[in-house]
Design brief:
Radius of gyration: 21 Å
Main location: membrane
Number of domains: 1
InterPro entries: NADH-Q_OxRdtase_suN/2, ND/Mrp_TM
Shape: globular
Transmembrane segments: 12-31, 38-65, 71-93, 100-117, 123-145, 157-180, 200-224, 236-260, 266-288, 295-316, 322-343, 364-381, 401-422, 443-464
Order of helices and strands: HHEEHHHHHHHHHHHHHHHHH
Domain NADH:quinone oxidoreductase/Mrp antiporter transmembrane: 119-415
Number of strands: 2
Membrane topology: Multi-pass membrane protein
């Protein structure tokens, strides 16, 4: 019997990422300056990005799919890595956790996200999810001497395990019903055998939605988010707020709009109250927060609710709007965390909202950057955040969900209170203490990239939206 080697070209980015991540781990043994490892990590992801163009196709009988949809999300993941590494270099030195495995774990977590985005099979999806999750659990508890960091890792791990259990149980039910875990085959089987009203399929769909909701921090499966975001290293909080969330939406779009599209009325009915609760809880509870990382945690929950509108719409425009919004969210959210990291210095954490009082008077440039990011998160024109919400709301209206958009607009108006409160603290109050900024060339570059993304996409959004529309299969 002749053994045929499968075509691995679609897996080229993942194979290259695996090799380079392992190389970063080994390089830590001989390279003493961890800043060098940071530079090598950024070079690695650029090398991986270079392999995207020639990697389109499928592998292993459709279990792995490399297409425009997955490539768009991989670009978001690569951007997330680059910005995270840039804001990490000085921060982890200040926190005294300047360890080489930090960068390797970020790359391995990103590898899991890439596998998730390309999953054409529920088993491959699970493998990618676990690789991403296990790496992120360790990163969340990376400040080993900090009780809050340990708490963040444990809570994230325990609730992540529940999410994995829901995913596996839902997968087993679908396999028992259809005899396959391939997404395309599942959709075909449902159509051929008229299973749209089958209670077992409905229950399996609910389990999968619950698992995905954990990963995107949707209410009521958001319990881990505030504590994990507050306790994790701030650079990892920024990483977690973008990468795993985008990966969760990537698989949600792939599973719901491909494998389970024949039962769209059912999963849309489930997602609508989840989206409303997510927007409501995220925006309302954020008002009472005094820690800026916890405030941005609830902000992240609320933004997941907005992005769900694109999935609920269930159209090409809806998915393209969701993809665009996640790219925009990466720029504005990591930019805000970069400013928070600038306030971190020896003996001063700078993660309380009161720490920003009078920042405009002492450090006007840092305050100006934070104002731009807060405006974008609020959705004030001409920032990218406004355009992201505009396209999301428009796609939901076109799909017949006008009433849902009205609710989203109301909650978006509520969000202005806690975002603009930061602006008020910075500009309208006198500084209570002198804050020394921890600046570095790498943080400056990260802020320049995020600022450019927020402004350019805000002024010229059509190019990004069109790219997302082309990418959606």
């Amino acid at each position: 019997m002749k053994f045929m080697i499968p075509g691995l070209r679609p897996l080229t980015p993942e194979i290259v990422m695996t090799v380079l991540a392992l190389a970063i781990l080994l390089a830590d043994l001989v390279i003493k300056r961890k800043e060098t490892l940071a530079t090598l990590s950024i070079i690695c992801v650029f090398v991986v990005a270079y392999t995207f163009s020639g990697s389109l196709g499928t592998a292993f009988g459709g279990m792995f799919i490399s297409d425009g949809y997955s490539t768009f999300f991989k670009i978001v993941f690569i951007l997330n890595v680059i910005l995270t590494v840039l804001i990490s270099v000085k921060y982890i030195a200040i926190e005294k956790v300047n360890l080489g495995e930090y960068y390797g774990l970020i790359l391995f977590s990103t590898l899991g996200m890439m596998i998730m985005a390309s999953a054409g099979d529920l088993i491959v999806l699970y493998l990618g999810l676990e690789l991403m999750a296990l790496s992120t659990y360790i990163l969340a508890g990376f400040i080993r001497y900090d009780v809050k960091s340990n708490e963040a890792a444990i809570k994230y791990f325990l609730l992540g395990a529940f999410a994995s259990a829901f995913l596996l149980y839902g997968t087993s039910m679908i396999y028992g019903l259809t005899g396959t875990t391939n997404l395309a085959a599942i959709s075909e089987y449902i159509n051929q055998h008229g299973l749209t009203g089958n209670p077992v399929l409905t229950l399996a769909m609910v389990f999968l939605v619950v698992a995905f909701s954990f990963k995107i921090a949707a209410v009521p499966f958001h319990m881990w988010t505030p504590d994990a975001y507050e306790g994790a290293p701030t650079s990892i909080t920024a990483f977690m707020s973008v990468g795993p969330k985008a990966a969760g939406f990537a698989v949600m779009g792939r599973v719901l709009l491909h494998a389970l599209y024949p039962i769209k009325p059912l999963w849309a009915t489930v997602l609508i109250p989840v989206a409303i609760l997510t927007m409501g809880v995220g925006n309302i509870v954020a008002i009472s927060q005094t820690n800026i990382k916890r405030m941005l945690a609830y902000s992240s929950i609320a933004h997941a609710g907005y992005a769900l509108l694109g999935v609920i719409a269930g159209t090409a425009d809806g998915l393209a709007s969701m993809m665009t919004y996640l790219l925009i969210y990466a720029f504005m959210n990591i930019g805000a965390f970069a400013v928070i990291i600038m306030l971190r210095s020896e003996g001063f954490k700078g993660d309380m909202i009161s720490d920003y009082e009078g920042l405009w008077h002492t450090h006007p440039l840092a305050a100006s950057l934070m104002i731009v990011f807060m405006f974008s998160l609020t959705g004030i024109p001409p920032t990218a955040g406004f355009m992201g919400k505009f396209y999301l709301f428009a796609s939901a209206i076109n799909a017949g969900y006008m009433w849902l958009v009205i609710i989203a607009v109301i909650f978006s108006a509520i969000s202005a209170y806690f975002y603009l409160r930061i602006v008020m603290y910075m500009c309208m109050r006198e500084p209570r203490q002198t804050v020394a900024l921890s600046t570095s060339p790498s943080i400056g570059l990260a802020l320049a990239i995020t600022l450019a993304g927020v402004i350019v996409i805000g002024v010229l959004p059509a190019q990004v939206v069109n790219l997302a529309r082309i990418a959606f299969p």
